[in-house]
Amino acid sequence: RNKVMRPSQLRIFAGTSRRLFRSDDTQELLVKKLITHPKFSHSSLTNDVAVITLKTKVKIDGITADVIPIPNKEPTIGAKCTVIGWGTVIQFGPTPDEVLNADVYIQPYAICKQDTLFTKGMLCAADINDYEVDSCQGDSGGPLICDGFVTGIVSFGIGCGERGSYGVYSDVYYYRNWINNNRATQQKLNGLPAFALAIAIALRAFRIQYF
């Protein structure tokens, strides 16, 4: 978060759920353009969203790589969602080789607002019956998938799995117009706009590597 990444510093990997292992299905793709939100703030973490344009298309087969669309309505309070990533398994702990997932639930605005940084364009999620279920360091930028849509993007939290604390996500629906305005092409891919690849995560099969 302390500096703006250059496209040449990024690689997109698709087709594998492994962080350290490459198979015949692994795809490594170069980044053509990285568009960060012009009002992103390092201090308040507002507008924590970006659009990535790839130099080549991801090979979509519906098995090792697929497209998940962005939502066309506001998140539903109480909805069961799944956060996916290669973040640490505990705060400051080791990072896994195999992608992990956790089920959390969209929380009401009044509860989320207890975090002083929480504001419009954000949503929060947690499992109030098991506070240890949470996203963690290294999950940032990963998807929160609700009802088959990329509803949130992992942004920040107070620790990981802390009692009374909630994971905070960028609200994809809130930023849908900005995303649409910055899409790379109008071409369709499997019935979905190609720009969806910029934030849609290929389930079990999408990660970003920084150099």
What's the arrangement of secondary structure elements?
Layout: E1 10-14, E2 27-36, E3 50-54, E4 80-85, E5 100-106, H1 109-112, E6 122-126, E7 143-146, E8 149-156, E9 167-171, H2 176-181, E10 188-189, E11 192-193, E12 206-210
Antiparallel strand pairs: 1-2, 1-12, 2-3, 4-5, 4-7, 5-6, 6-9, 7-8, 8-9, 10-11
Summarize the model shown.
The chain has 211 residues and is mainly beta. The chain has helices at 109-112, 176-181; strands at residues 10-14, 27-36, 50-54, 80-85, 100-106, 122-126, 143-146, 149-156, 167-171, 188-189, 192-193, 206-210.
Give the SSE string.
EEEEEHEEEEHEEE
Distance between the termini: 14 Å
How many β-strand runs?
12
Strand sequence of the main sheet, in spatial order?
Answer: 4-5-6-9-8-7
- CATH H-tier superfamily of the largest domain: Trypsin-like serine proteases
Radius of gyration: 16 Å
Number of domains: 2
Features:
211 residues; mainly beta; Thrombin, subunit H; six-stranded antiparallel barrel; four-stranded antiparallel β-sheet; disordered C terminus; serine-type endopeptidase activity; secreted
What would your notes on this structure say?
The chain folds into two domains: 7-67 and 175-206, Beta Barrel (Thrombin, subunit H), CATH 2.40.10.10; 79-173, Thrombin, subunit H (Beta Barrel), CATH 2.40.10. Residues 184-211 have low confidence and may be disordered. With 211 residues, it is mostly beta strands. Helices cover 5% and strands 30% of the residues.
